[in-house]
Amino acid sequence: MLIRRGGRQDVRFLRDMLHHAYYWRERQPGEGPGPVALYVKGWGRAGDTALIAIEDGFPVGAAWYRLFPRDHPGYGFVDEETPELAIAVVPSRRGRGIGDALLDALYERAKVDGHRAVSLAVERHNEPLVSYYEKKHGFTRAHEDGEESVTMRREL
């Protein structure tokens, strides 16, 4: 597997990956812009960073982060200096360590870019995933959004 830096040419793939990463939000979209609008629209603005996992010449996963302003936050918003990440691996490639490799590479990229922490949102009732981020990747719970999600933060 190879991990390369993503760019504008990868927006379609990032959009496809969001359907896997935010499936729970699409089932109950609520008000406001959906995940595609929040996490890829206008890709390439200051602070946008993506990494793409490639196997056998094909993209199989992506991890990326974006900074949000306080008045237009993402689902896992902590503050304007902490980029919020999203990650997804195509279903046929899950369980092979691709997600862990992408996250580790994204943490390193965020440090190089001068960030002190990253954040993300997890469905509140997905306790195995919340536990995974806490135990394997060192995230802590920043706050919970009612019945829907848990915002988590990881120091770099």
Characterization of the model:
The chain has about 160 residues and is α+β, with helices and mostly antiparallel strands. It has one domain (about 1-155): Gcn5-related N-acetyltransferase (GNAT) (Aminopeptidase). Helices cover about 30% and strands about 30% of the residues. The protein has helices spanning about 10-20, 25, 35-40, 100-110, 125-135; strands at about 1-5, 50-55, 60-65, 85-90, 115-125, 140-145, 150-155. It has a four-stranded antiparallel β-sheet with strand order 1-2-3-4, sandwiched between helices. Strands 5-7-6 form a three-stranded antiparallel β-sheet. A hairpin with a 3-residue loop joins strand 6 and strand 7. The chain is globular. It starts with a strand and ends with a strand.
Features:
156 residues, alpha+beta, Aminopeptidase, four-stranded antiparallel beta sheet, three-stranded antiparallel beta sheet, 7 strands, 30% helix, 29% strand, globular
Give me the secondary-structure topology.
Layout: E1 2-5, H1 11-21, H2 23-27, H3 35-39, E2 49-55, E3 58-66, E4 84-89, H4 98-112, E5 117-123, H5 127-137, E6 140-145, E7 149-155
Antiparallel strand pairs: 1-2, 2-3, 3-4, 5-7, 6-7
What would a concise description of this structure say?
This protein has 156 residues and is of the alpha+beta class.
CATH topology-level fold name = Aminopeptidase
* CATH class type: Alpha Beta
Total helical segments: 5
What's the CATH architecture?
Answer: 3-Layer(aba) Sandwich
Q: Give the CATH H-level superfamily.
A: Gcn5-related N-acetyltransferase (GNAT)
SS content category: alpha+beta
Overall mean confidence score, pLDDT: 89
Question: Measured on Cα atoms, how large is the radius of gyration?
Answer: 14 Å
| Proportion of beta-strand residues | 25-35%
Topology order in helix (H) and strand (E) letters: EHHHEEEHEHEE
Parts with pLDDT < 50 across at least 5 consecutive residues: none
> What is the distance, rounded to the nearest whole angstrom, between the alpha carbons of the first and last residues?
24 Å
Shape: globular
Largest beta sheet: strand ordering:
1-2-3-4
- Give the helix proportion (percent range): 25-40%
Characterize the biggest β-sheet: 4 strands, antiparallel
Domain tally: 1
